[in-house]
Specification:
The chain is α/β, with parallel strands linked by helices and 154 residues long. The chain contains 5 helices and 4 strands; from the N terminus they run E-H-E-H-H-E-H-E-H. Bound molecules: 4-nitrophenyl phosphate (4NP).
């Protein structure tokens, strides 16, 4: 099972999702069976580590994001992954726009899939520290639900 998380810059939301979900998958002993990555629809931050505010907030909850590096979403990702989960509708639209007709990967909004109070992960980049905590809260809950879903599919 191959899962790709997508946001705009690949330095805040999707690396958080990658780190949190990887942590959950490792705890469940499933790291050999679930491949995880993240990407951004934009290219401004390619090659960079996640935002320092994102790293700090994650570290305080026990997730180490420091080794991650941003990359841009590519059309080929539709062939490389089974499940592509976008953080917001704008990300979803941008990915849908380059989706090959033959693509088999499933594409969805990460939170909508799990019937949470919000269906988008709000972009924290231009806001205060609360935004980074909210990103973690939402992603932790959705990651639990995603792991349960995948366990049922493996
Ligand atoms: P992300 O957040 O999509 O969660 O990584 C953002 C990071 C950078 C920018 C916007 C959103 N930016 O405009 O540079």
């Amino acid at each position: 099972m191959r899962v790709l998380f997508v946001c705009l810059g690949n330095i805040c939301r999707s690396p958080t999702a990658e780190g949190v979900f990887r942590h959950r998958v490792r705890e469940a002993g499933l790291e050999e069976r679930i491949h995880i990555d993240s990407a951004g629809t934009g290219d401004w931050h390619v090659g960079k580590a996640p935002d320092s505010r994102t790293c700090r907030a994650a570290r305080l909850r026990g997730y180490d994001l420091s080794g991650l590096r941003a990359r841009q979403f590519q059309r080929e990702d539709f062939e490389r992954f089974d499940l592509v989960l976008a953080m917001d509708r704008s990300n979803l639209r941008n990915i849908q726009a380059v989706r090959p007709a033959t693509a088999r990967a499933e594409l969805d909004l990460f939170l909508r899939r799990y019937d949470m109070a919000l269906d988008e992960v709000p972009d924290p980049y231009y806001g205060g520290e609360d935004g980074f905590e909210q990103v973690l809260d939402l992603i932790e809950r959705a990651s639990d639900a995603l792991l349960a879903e995948i366990k049922g599919r493996l």
